[in-house]
Each structure stands twice: as C-alpha cells, then as structure tokens.
Write a structure and sequence with these properties.
By secondary structure, the chain is an alpha/beta fold. The chain has twelve helices and five strands. Helices cover about 50% and strands about 10% of the residues. The two termini are about 30 Å apart. About 35% of the residues are buried.
Length: about 280
Amino acid sequence: MYQSHFGLEEMPFSLTPNTALFYALPPHLEAIQTTLAALEMGEGIIQISGEVGTGKTLVCRMLIKQLPQQFELAYLPTPAACGDELRLALARELAISVEGDNTAVTEQLQQALIERKAAGKSVVVLLDEAQALPDDALETLRLLGNLETEQEKLLHIVLLGQPELDQRLDQHHMRQLRQRITFRACLRPLDLAETIAYIEFRLNSAGCQRELFELAQYRELWKASQGIPRLINQLCHKALIAASSSNAQSVGRKEVLMAVKDTLGARQPKWTYPVLWGWH
C-alpha cells in the first residue's frame, strides 16, 4: 500500500466513519449545531437528510460524542422491521424490562421516561437509515413523539436518512408525522473549496508532509466525486495506490483518471483512454 511510500502515519481515506478524522465542513457543522440547538430547546422530532455517502453516519457519531450530559442516548443504527420491534428496541436501549401487549409496552416506556425526566434526564433516540423504516414503525415514532408532560416532551427523536425519507414523508398519510418534524438539516455535497480543504485535512491528519495533489487534480477529483465525501475517499485512495505503484512522488492526472475509471458512481470524463495510455 501507499502508506509507507508517502510517509503517512495512518490511512487517510478509510471508508469507515472515523470521528478522529472529522473535519467541520459547513454542511456537517450546520447539521450538528441545528440538531443540538433543537434538542436544547426541547423539540420533539428532528430530521437530518443526505444523499448516500454525504456523511450521515459520521454526523451521527459526532452527535453522540457532543450530546450534553443532561441527555440520555438511545442509538438505533439499524431500522426496525415493524412498530412493535421499534418499541422493544427502544426499551432495550434504555434498559427497561417490558412485558405485555403494545399498549402495556408504551405505558412502561412512558413511565420510565417520566422517571428520567424527574431525575433531570431527557432521552434522545437517534435512528440511522430512517428511510428504511416501514410505515407502521414511522407511525410508532409519531405516537412516541407525543409522549409529554404538561410542559415538555418526554422523548426527543432524531431521524437520519436518505432523500427517500423526504419522499415517504411527502405522502398524504404521513402528514401527521411530517408536521411534527420541527427542524431539518440537509447534508449537501461539498463545493470545490470544501473538497480541497477536506482532502488536505485528511492528509495532514495522517502525517503527510508534502503536497500530493495539485489544483488541477483537486478539480478532477471534485468533478468526478460530485462533492460526495465517500466518493472523494475512494478516488483519493485509489489515486494514491496508483501513484505509489508507479513510484511517483505525487498524484498526477493519469493516476486520478485511473481511479475515476475504477470507481462505480464516479462521473466519468470524456476521452479517458488516450491519457491513460500516453497518447497525445
């Protein structure tokens, strides 16, 4: 691999979300700050949406790290298959022993939430991949979001999902849940300047001591990735592999085009092959 070739202390472009490599770019920072502010104000349901690869899971992990002490977290990383499963998963996360039918489980959850509120704790449930929740699970979320005292909500819900979640919520029968979402944040793709800053931050964090990309290559990476962080990671990773394989000391256009050609989802440039094969 290229780590020793370029003198890096770690792999800078791993696809596994790593909070140690989090760079507070505007769309991610806005989503985190919006969510934390909404929770502090006691809002019931908050939504974070973003296309595949824009960093929802990393934002979720940063929220977990930054959650103030007065909040107790229930993290549900995989979507429940139905409303009953969602209730039970939430109860397990909160270490609540439940028994009985759905009504009894909801009552036990409510009692546990009241006790936590009396002790000065508010419960936040983070649901990743929310676009995959079935309709009855979304309805269960709406009902759970209704649990409240006379003054405040007992449960705060943060939905993280792909744009398909918005399409689901736009349906007529979802209008009650849609109206209860008080704050929304969207993880947009990065622009060119943000892409350059993101790549350089990752390289510097990995111990890079020299310039590995020129502006022209940054521009090609941005166009090919369309500003999607996951694609940026894949392209940079493959371009560095190609450069180290040819014993190059930096990444040129040839290596970037090789990475683009090898990456599904990357926007392919015209006339790639003459460059790759050294034609003029």
